[in-house]
Design a protein that fits this description.
Helix content is 24%, strand content 29%. By secondary structure, the protein is of the alpha+beta class. The strands form 6 sheets. Strands 18, 19, 20, 21, 22, 23, 26, 27, 30, 31, 32 and 33 form a 12-stranded mixed β-sheet that branches. Strands 8-9-17-10-16-15 form a 6-stranded mixed β-barrel. Strands 1-3-2-4-5 form a 5-stranded mixed β-sheet.
Amino acid sequence: AADAAGSGGCVGDSSVPPMVVYRWPLLWTFSIAALCSWARGNPGLVTLSAPNFDRRVAHGTWFVKFFEPGCLYCQRLAPVWAQLANTAKDDKWSVLVAQADCTEGFWMRLRCKKLGVAGFPTLLLIQDGQLQTRYMGAASVLHFEHWLRNLNVLQTESSDGAQQTGRGSGSFRGSRTATLARPARSSWNQEIVAEISVGSPPQVFRCLLYSGSSDFWIPSARCGSCMSERRFQADNSATFKPDLVQTPDGMAPRPINVTYGAGTGQVFGFAVRDTLNFGSVQMKNQSFIIVENETVPPHPSWDGVCGLGWHHSSTDPPMYQRLQMEGHRALFTLIPSTGSKITLAVGEVPASVNHSTVVWAKAVSVGSKTGFAAAHHPFWVTSGGIAVHKRHPVPANFLIDSGTNMVLLVPLIYFESFIQSLFPEDLFERFCGAGDQSGEFIACDCTVTETEGLLPLRIYLGGRPFVVEFKDLFRQLPAESGRRLQCSLMVRPNRKGTPMTPQAQDPVAQLWILGGAFLERVVTVFDFDRRMLGFAPHPSEGKAKPIGQCINCWAQTRSLPFWKNPEALPWKPLAFVSSFALALFVLVPRCVRRTFQSLANTEPAEQPLSSDNSGE
C-alpha cells in the first residue's frame, strides 16, 4: 500500500475500487484477530505429530486419542471424537482434545510405546506432560464429559467469562433431548465398600464388595499405574506366600490377568496367599491377587476388590470356599446404616436384623439350559416380579449386582415401555429429556418428584414387595447458578452381557439388574451354603410398619380412573357383588315365578265314585 501511494498510481485512480487498496491491511487485521481469538479459546481437534508432540502436551490438560488409520474401531470413533472436539471448542473447555497417529514414523511409534499404548484406539489423559490415567468407558461425548468432570480437570467458560464446572441446559420442559450437568461423586457413588486387613501384622485396605465376581485383589507396592494410596507391602508380612509354578527358568510366581466387562477394566498381577481379616472372621492362607498393573476407571473410594460371586475367577479358592473349608458359614450380610454406609457381617445374620422380616429366594442359574453348578457366570440371580400400576407383579429374573451404581437396569427390549409406565401421560415430555441420542441417560427437572399421585416401583423378592418411591429413583445433580435443579433417573437399560453375542440370545442381557442404589435400601444376605438370597427391610424403618411392603400402593392405584388403570378395579369384590345381584334380582325371581306357574297349572285330582253310589 505504501508503494502504491508513493508511485501516485492506484490511490487516486477512481476506476479502482477502494477495497482493492485496503485489502491487504484488512486481510492482515482479520488474520491477526482470528489468531488472537484462537489463542484465547479452545482450538478444537488438535493433531499431534512427532515434531510437536512433546512441546504441545508439556503444558495444559490434554485428552488424546492414539490410533492407527487401518483400525476399524478407530474409524468408528472418529466422528464421535470430532464431535467431542467441537463441543470443547464451543464451550471453551480447559481440556484440549487431540489425536495422534502412532504409525507416523519411528519417533511417534516410540512415544506411543513409552506411554503404554498397546492397542487401538487408546484414550489417555495427559496433564503438563505427565500421563494421568486411561479412559476405559463407553464411546460417547456424554461419557467423555462426565469422566473428565469426575476427575476435576474440566472447566468451561460462560458467555460472561465466568468459570463454571457444569454445562447445564436449563429447564428440560418442552425438550426431548437435553445435556446433563456434571454429576458429583457423592451423588453417583453407590459403591459398597468394606474395610479389611491383610498380612501379619495386618495392613488395612478399603475393599469394593462386588457380587458379580469372586476375584479378590489389592494393589502391590510395586504397582506404578495403581491410583490407590494404600499399597500392600509383601515384604512386611510374615505370613505372605507367593503361588509358584514351574517355568523354563525355574520356579516363578503365577501371573494372572483379569478383565472386567467388555474391556471396561483390566488388572495384572500374581497369585499369592496371606492371612485375611474379613468382618469378624480371620482366614489364614487366603488366596488373592497382588496387582502390579491396573487399567480401571478412577476409584478414589476403594483400593481393591472383594468378590462375593460364585467361583468363576483366578482366585482359588475364593473367600466363600475358604470360609467353608475352615468350618464357618459361607454367609455375607450387607446391612444399610445411617447415610449411605453399609455394614458387613460374615458368617451369620446379626441380631440387629429382625429375622422375622427376612424373606428367602432361591438362587437360579443364568441360562435355562444349564444347572446352577454348571453355570458359567459368577452372578447371583433369583426369580421375582416387578410392578408399577398392576396389582399383581410381572414375573422377572433379577441379577443382584453390587457393582452397578443404579437402582435398576432394565432389559433393552422393555426399557421404553418401562419408562412410559413410570411417567404417566405427558409427564416425561414436560419435565424430562434424554442425555444423549440413545435416550439411555435421562435427566429431569427436579420438580417432577413433587408431582402428586405418582406410583412407586414395587420389586417382589421372595414373595414380598420392596418399594422404591418415585422420588427415590432420582439423584440430584450439582446446582448451577441461575438454572433449575436437575435430577438424574437411576434407571438405565441393561447393556451387560457376553461380548459379540446378540442380546436376544444372551441370557444376561434379558435380566433385570438390581444395583447398589437399591441394595443400600434393603438388607441383603448371600448364603452360599444353601444357595439362597435373603432380603429384609431397612432397619431404620422400625417394627411398627410392615417394612418393605407396599402399604398404600393399593390406595394410590385405586385413586386412578379405571380406564387408565384397569388393574386398579377390585375384580374379586366386583365379581362377588355381581354374582350376588344376579342371583338376587334375576335367578331368584325367575325360580319363584316358575314355582307359582307350576302351582297354578296343577288341577286337583277327581274323587273316585264309591261302590254305594255306583248302583244308584
